[in-house]
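During the reporting period the student researcher (J.K.) took over the structure-prediction task from the postdoctoral fellow and processed the backlog of single-chain submissions. One of the processed entries is reproduced below for the supervisory committee.
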Amino acid sequence: MPKEKNIVALAKSFAAIHKTCFGNPGIKFSSSFILSLIENPNVKFIEQEQKGFCLARLSNGEAEIITMAIKPEFQQKGIGYSILIKTIQLIEKTSCKTIFLEVASDNVAGIRLYSKAGFNKCGIRKDYYQISNGKKADAIIMKKTLVE
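J.K. obtained the following structure tokens:
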């Protein structure tokens, strides 16, 4: 299969996984948006086929985890932690010294996962995420320092 078809199929796969993880239509990433990300040379990803993935953007010595999604049936089985650690290891091979991410304040499992991997809360964005029925959740900004 040509590389272009592979990358389009990968974007569709990531979008399908992302859709199963996020209830709000405004949070779901379309396959065209994911394709635009993975075609960007500053965006790296780690995947575990058909189970989950993590997308990270590298910029000027910093990395940002754009999104991470694990299919619900594979959550709480160590797959997310494995993907996150592999993403961190990939970023460690670059010139990036810090990694940032945002997580919804009501995503207890996500916060626990990121904390376990060495991320610490460094900020908050009030009412950042539109959850459902007009409800909002804060975005917790977390940071991991790779180089002291």
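The committee noted the following: Strands lie at 43-48, 52-59, 62-70, 98-104, 120-130, 136-145.
J.K. will present the remaining backlog at the next meeting.
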